[in-house]
Amino acid sequence: MCHKVYIEPRLQSNNSKLFYDALLAGQGIALLPDFVVADALAGGHLVPILAAFDTAILNLYSLRPKDHMASHRLKLLHDFLHQHLNSCE
């Protein structure tokens, strides 16, 4: 059984640090990556809710101009992210 719920957000951002700070200030609920909230969860500062429910799969993209060669640092970052994120499945 699938339930879709839309809640009108009071705060919108693409910055997880902003949401993290709002959570610690008791300003509501948010869906954030585990690595962002792990320490606060472990310390009892945040409590997971609705953990039994699945969320949509999110994608991560690495973008660069088509006519530019990827630098060595960018290739290393791409390899690191690919290895780490694939190991989380």
Describe the structure in your own words.
It is a single chain. 38% of the residues lie in helices and 0% in strands. With 89 residues, the chain is mainly α. The radius of gyration is 17 Å and the shape is extended. The model has no long low-confidence stretch (mean pLDDT 84).
Question: What best-fitting shape do the alpha-carbon axes yield?
Answer: extended
Report the sheet with the most strands, covering strand number, pairing sense and barrel closure: none
Low-confidence parts lasting 5 or more residues at pLDDT below 50?
none
Write the element-wise H/E pattern from the N-terminal end onward. HHH
Instruction: State Rg.
Output: 17 Å
Number of strands: 0
**Beta-strand residue percentage:** under 5%
List the helices and strands and how they pair.
Blueprint: H1 16-24, H2 34-42, H3 72-87
